[in-house]
Design the sequence.
């Protein structure tokens, strides 16, 4: 009797259930026995033949991707070349120093015209902790502003900062050295983990 009942239950309900109860899954994805239902999207559809238009589109995007990769590579090469040229022009500064000065230039370029006024330049000096007098700053700024239009470009800004305190025996002095040390400190802190920064009391 027991074997007969088990056979009937197995035939009707496909007992025992092969998967977890249906309550563990979305009902529309599984049968009453817990078996996954076939997805209509899983059925293989006949592959459509590739047309000449499809080939042209694919070729276009392949060429476009290759061109973009070339452009990015050239931009990076030009950036590296430009950076090396600047470092050669200002001995003692490295890429970190120049990148930090570039960030400061953009930060204090309040009019976003790619130029700094005397007030903007003084704000940069204040951010670096410079303690020179206003007369010194104005004198050196005016010496750098060759066309006397009241503005200095980024290249002039770098030259002004580097030569604010002229090098002695080829060694950086004053503001130029301060910029280098500030950039090195930033690089050091950036390389620390959050835990290490907490140990140094940076928070």
Sequence:
């Amino acid at each position: 009797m027991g074997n007969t009942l088990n056979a009937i239950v197995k035939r009707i309900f496909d007992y025992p259930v092969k998967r977890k109860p249906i309550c563990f899954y979305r009902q529309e994805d599984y049968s009453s026995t817990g078996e996954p239902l076939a997805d209509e999207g899983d059925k293989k559809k006949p592959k459509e033949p590739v047309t000449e238009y499809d080939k042209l589109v694919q070729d276009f995007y392949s060429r476009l991707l290759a061109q973009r990769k070339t452009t990015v590579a050239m931009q990076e090469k030009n950036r590296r070349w430009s950076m090396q040229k600047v470092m050669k022009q200002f001995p003692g500064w490295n890429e970190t120093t120049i990148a930090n000065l570039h960030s400061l230039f953009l930060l204090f370029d309040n009019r976003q015209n790619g130029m700094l006024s005397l007030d903007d330049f003084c704000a940069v000096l204040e951010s670096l902790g410079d303690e020179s007098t206003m007369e010194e700053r104005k004198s050196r700024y005016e010496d750098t502003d060759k066309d006397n239009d009241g503005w200095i470009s980024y290249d002039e800004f770098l030259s002004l900062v580097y030569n604010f305190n002229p090098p002695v025996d080829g060694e950086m002095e004053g503001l130029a050295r301060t910029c280098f040390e500030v950039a090195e400190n930033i690089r050091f802190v950036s390389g620390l983990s959050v835990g290490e920064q907490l140990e140094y009391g940076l928070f």
